[in-house]
Amino acid sequence: METKKTSKSFSPEVRDRAVRMVREHRGDYGSEWEAILSIASKIGCTGESLRRWLRQAERDLGDRAGLTSDERARLKALERENRELRQANEILRKASAYFAMAEFDRRSKP
User: Which of 14, 51, 90, 106 would give a disulfide with 10, using CB separation of 3.0 to 4.6 Å?
Assistant: First the structure.
């Protein structure tokens, strides 16, 4: 699964600050979504981006079920390693078949 990369990236500090602001000022608004939209407009991101950052922060703190950032990074690394190992195994399988055929051809010639 590939995530879309936008042209504007925010530093971890800005993300943390925005999440902290939502958590601190959630009660000042009629709903959490209103707080998210208001704060997102102040830092220059979309409401959906800030909502995702907030949900991930909640998972990292154990307030919400799901993978933490560390677990997600570990899973991504394991998936990459698995993909590389599958590719290496496929190369070795093909090489083994090639050399087995070459050995068979060598033995069958007088």
Answer: 14
